Amino acid sequence: MLQTLREQTSALHKEIEKDNTAGLIMDHSITMSEYKLLLLQNYLAYKIVEDEIKRFQPQFSTDKSERLAEDLILLNVDFEAPIASFKGDFHCNDEIEALGAAYVLEGSAMGGMLIARELQDCTNLASIAKHHFFNGDRKNVQGWKEFMKKVNSREFSAEETQKATLKAQETFLFFGKIFDYQPQFSA
Ligand code: HEM
């Protein structure tokens, strides 16, 4: 299952990595308003996908969207109004689809670790005392390890693997769609 998810989403990962505002963190050029936009986009995507996963996996952690909300509150960015525009655009219909979506959310923590490291050298963001989402905490990859353990501990039919893979691809596309949402922020 994991191998198929990885293979079938690697092109989408490359695509999203290329176009993402997070790239501006990697080269340290990001401005405060670009960072606010990145946090807002991530909040919308994580919150909506987490809520759908939770319908089938009630214990699924919503800690990523909660930490994004903390960052946004400190930066005075409204995230309640924009969520309404995307709320109905992503759905999981069963536990297997929720697993495909969870693959994308849990796996994304690895990129987050890399980004957190570079954030320290982004001089335009020096006034932010603490980053809650991109915090570089090793605990972030714990969810990924548990996810891998869980998936590797059971068998999936070809149909289930196919279904989870389609939902993982759709989750990447949903993130891509939200990354195209670019309201203007003042710094
Ligand atoms: C600039 C942004 C990003 C960077 C630099 C980045 C970087 C990375 C890195 C370094 C890994 C670990 C690869 C490995 O150790 O095998 C990874 C894995 C992963 N990333 Fe990203 N990533 C970014 C954005 C995203 C986004 C936005 C998502 C989801 C919407 C995402 C989803 C994943 C997934 C699911 C994996 C796990 C792949 C696997 O091992 O099966 N990434 N990323």
Automatic annotation (TrEMBL):
<dbReference type="GO" id="GO:0004392">
    <property type="term" value="F:heme oxygenase (decyclizing) activity"/>
</dbReference>
<dbReference type="Pfam" id="PF01126">
    <property type="entry name" value="Heme_oxygenase"/>
</dbReference>
<dbReference type="InterPro" id="IPR016053">
    <property type="entry name" value="Haem_Oase-like"/>
</dbReference>
<protein>
    <submittedName>
        <fullName>Biliverdin-producing heme oxygenase</fullName>
    </submittedName>
</protein>
<dbReference type="InterPro" id="IPR016084">
    <property type="entry name" value="Haem_Oase-like_multi-hlx"/>
</dbReference>
<dbReference type="GO" id="GO:0006788">
    <property type="term" value="P:heme oxidation"/>
</dbReference>
